[in-house]
C-alpha cells in the first residue's frame, strides 16, 4: 500500500501543473474569510485561495492509522495535514457557539453537520501557503462528500483508504492514551457502526470514480469478522 500511495503522491506533482487554468476558474465563487462565523448560504460556492491545490482525502476506520500515515506523508512529501477530527476538537476548546454540539456528537460517535466541518477545513486551507492537502477523516458520509464538492466546486484528486481488521482498530484505539472522549469501548462500537453504514459508501463512490487507493492490513486467524464485531447490533442514529 505504502509504495502505491507513494507513487500516487509523486504523480500529484504533474497533476499540480496540469490543473493550472482548469475548471476552477469558471466557477462563480467568493473568497472565504478566515474567522468568519460558521454559516453558509444555500448557493455558496467557496474555494481555497490556491486554485491549483492538490486535495487528497484520507479515509479508514477509527484507529486504522490515518493520522500516523499522514504524519509520514507530511515528512516525506510536504503535504499540509488537516485532520477533520482535530479541527473539531480544537473548535470545542475555543469559544465556538458549536462547541457543545460538536462535543456531544463526538461523544456519541455521530457525525457533525457538514456545513460546520467543511468550513473548518476551508478556513485552514485558506490560512495555509501549501498547495497540497491531506484531509484526514473526511468526508465521513455521502452528505459530507456532496457538501464539500458543492461548496468548493471541486472533487479530491486522490483518496487513500487504510483498511484494517476491526479487532486491530479496537485494540489500537483502546491503547491510544490520548485522553480522547471517544476512545472507550461504548463509543468505539458506535464509531464502527457509523463507519460501516456511512463512510464505506463514500469509499465505494470514489472507487467507482477511479480515485481510490486502497491499502489492506493482512487478515490473520484472530480477526473479528464484520458480523461478529462488538456493537454489530446497535442502531446507527
Ligand atoms: N501500523 C500500526 N501498527 C500498530 N499501531 C499503529 C499502527 N498505526 C497506528 N498505530 C497506533 O494506533 C493508534 C491509532 O492510530 P491513528 O491515531 O493514526 O489512527 P486514526 O485512523 O487517525 O484514528 P482516529 O480515526 O480514531 O483518529 C495510535 O496509538 C497509533 O500509534
Ligand atoms: O469529518 C468529520 C470528522 C470527525 N467527526 C467526528 O469526530 C470524531 C473523531 O474523528 P477522528 O477522525 O476519529 O479524529 C468522529 O467520530 C466524529 O464524531 C465528524 O463528525 N466529522
Ligand atoms: Mg486520527
TrEMBL record:
SUPFAM superfamilies: P-loop containing nucleoside triphosphate hydrolases
HAMAP family: Adenylate_kinase_Adk (MF_00235)
Name listed for the protein in its UniProt record: adenylate kinase
Bias kind Basic and acidic residues: ranges: 226-237
Catalysis performed (reactions): UMP + ATP = UDP + ADP
GO term, biological process aspect, one: pyrimidine nucleotide biosynthetic process
Organism from which the protein derives: Trifolium subterraneum
Gene Ontology molecular-function annotations: AMP kinase activity; ATP binding
Domain of life assignment: Eukaryota
Family label: Belongs to the adenylate kinase family.
Pfam family name, one: ADK
Residues annotated as signal peptide: none
Location of region: Disordered: 211-237
Record InterPro entries: Adenylat/UMP-CMP_kin, Adenylat_kinase_CS, P-loop_NTPase, UMP_CMP_kinase
Keyword field: ATP-binding, Cytoplasm, Kinase, Nucleotide-binding, Nucleus, Pyrimidine biosynthesis, Transferase
EC number: 2.7.4.3
Amino acid at each position: 500500500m505504502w509504495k502505491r500511495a507513494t507513487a500516487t503522491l509523486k504523480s500529484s506533482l504533474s497533476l499540480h501543473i496540469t490543473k493550472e487554468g482548469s475548471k476552477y476558474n469558471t466557477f462563480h465563487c467568493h473568497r472565504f474569510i478566515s474567522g468568519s462565523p460558521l454559516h453558509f448560504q444555500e448557493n455558496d460556492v467557496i474555494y481555497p485561495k490556491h486554485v491549483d491545490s492538490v486535495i487528497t482525502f484520507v479515509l479508514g476506520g477509527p484507529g486504522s492509522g490515518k493520522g500516523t500515515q499522514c504524519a509520514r506523508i507530511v515528512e516525506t512529501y510536504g503535504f499540509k495535514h488537516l485532520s477533520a477530527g482535530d479541527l473539531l476538537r480544537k473548535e470545542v476548546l475555543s469559544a465556538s457557539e458549536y462547541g457543545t454540539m460538536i462535543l456531544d456528537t463526538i461523544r456519541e460517535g455521530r457525525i457533525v453537520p457538514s456545513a460546520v466541518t467543511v468550513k473548518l477545513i476551508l478556513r485552514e486551507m485558506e490560512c495555509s501557503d501549501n498547495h497540497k492537502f491531506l484531509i484526514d477523516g473526511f468526508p465521513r458520509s455521502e452528505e459530507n462528500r456532496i457538501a464539500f464538492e458543492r461548496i468548493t466546486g471541486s472533487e479530491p484528486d486522490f483518496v487513500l483508504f487504510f483498511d484494517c481488521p476491526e479487532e486491530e482498530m479496537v485494540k489500537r484505539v483502546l491503547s491510544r492514551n490520548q485522553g480522547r472522549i471517544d476512545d472507550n469501548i461504548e463509543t468505539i462500537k458506535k464509531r464502527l457502526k457509523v463507519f460501516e453504514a456511512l463512510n464505506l459508501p463514500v469509499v465505494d463512490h470514489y472507487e467507482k470514480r477511479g480515485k481510490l487507493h486502497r491499502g489492506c492490513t493482512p487478515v490473520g486467524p484472530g480477526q473479528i469478522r464484520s458480523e461478529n464485531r462488538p456493537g454489530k447490533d446497535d442502531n446507527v442514529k
